[in-house]
Amino acid sequence: MLSARRASQLLRRTFATTATRRYTPLTVTSPVPTFFDAVRVKGFEDGPIPAFRVLGPEGVPLNATGQEQASKADLDTLERMLEVMTTLPILDQILYSSQRQGRISFYMTSYGEEGAVVGSAAAWEPEDEVFAQYREVGVLLWRSYPLSSLMAQVFSTASDAATRGRQMPVHYGSKEHHFHTISSPLGTQLPQASGAAYALKRTPGREKNCVICYAGEGATSEGDFHAGLNKQWVCLKSSVPTRVSLLTQYVRRFAISTPVAQQYAGDGIAARGPGYGIDTIRVDGNDPLAVYLACKEARKTAVDGQKPVLVEAMTYRVGHHSTSDDSSAYRSLSAVESVKKLDSPIFRLRRYLESLSPPRWSAERDAAVKDSSKRAILKEFSKAEKDKKPPLAEMFGDVFAPVEGEDKVGADGLERPQREQKEELKRLIEKWGETPAWKKELGKFEGGREAVLKW
Ligand SMILES: Cc1ncc(C[n+]2csc(CCOP(=O)(O)OP(=O)(O)O)c2C)c(N)n1
């Protein structure tokens, strides 16, 4: 134990030395008051931060420089990217309609963002730790996450290893695939990612890995975004690609119904990177090739340079926010249709691969990929739909970590609030369990009503 006097001496000495070490004399001064409100990029001083783009909307490299950039991408990787990007809308269509039919409770699609999600996923190493928001199932597909696990999560079955049937659909997680379980509250993943980056830095053998954190522009208005970015200055080992809806300044982008015009007043999210001393790039998120190249470079900077990187991918959510949303209430359907027609990331990459000599994609290949993906998805869908959910007792566990010697915990390992909830459920099931509606629902859980009566 330090005496108060000794503690105050130490404090004074610490502050004194820190202040001396940190003091930097001002080297650049201005004789007149100079205010500024924007980040200026060399060569683009007069306008907003430029977006890196290789392929135009028709899938053609912009010019000779674009051609040179495009040639840096490995063609097998681009082909696999297109396979996954082609599979995503099929998965979305099946799961979205199944929610509409009442077969699952909730869903969120990736429509329009396939290039930003899969293009970035392809740039990471398989053991890089991913903290996603919720619209990045494409990263899991890229990492060959089994469709059986995906369906188990969506249908909350007993085989759902990540969330044991306790979470809403799309809250995937897989230790094996280095994909941390999704959290619903916006921004949660940002400080978590910074913490994980710090842990990686201290873990022998993980020196060549980094942490990836995805966030939409709505999430970047949370305080956790700023806490996370500031913390990365210390962690020095992660990259933060954010998804920001939209490609041109004329199409509106949304966080549910909040348009970007109400989300921030500055030049997007990229403008914030330099404020935290972070290397930053803005990329056309609907150009999968540009996203891939930018993220590869970002990863190299993060790992070799041991520092954080911010990648802002400008894309557009063409689907509704979720199955709980009807976006026609806040944006015109014709605007959405025109983005779909004029700025499809899938079309861009497909056109590019078809135009190569020899071609790396064709109408036949496209049809074959769609057909086999649909079959594989439907097979696992049908199986998971029939699978039982975990026993009802499962829902009460894992709320609090067990504390050794803690007498509040009962024989079943539960704390008082969970024990009371469990008893209440048992009471209700004893009373109503035989009514047709309850009987039908209880039949979906392993052990059903009988298991509950034995509690
Ligand atoms: C802390 C918190 N506030 C509000 C919500 C409700 N909410 C869920 S998603 C969302 C919009 C997020 O938009 P964005 O980050 O741009 O991602 P997008 O859905 O557009 O991909 C909101 C407000 C939430 N989940 N958490």
TrEMBL record:
Its EC number is 1.2.4.4. It holds the Pfam family E1_dh. It is an enzyme of class 1 (oxidoreductase). Residues 84-391 form the Dehydrogenase E1 component domain. Belongs to the BCKDHA family. PANTHER family: 2-OXOISOVALERATE DEHYDROGENASE SUBUNIT ALPHA, MITOCHONDRIAL. This is 2-oxoisovalerate dehydrogenase subunit alpha.
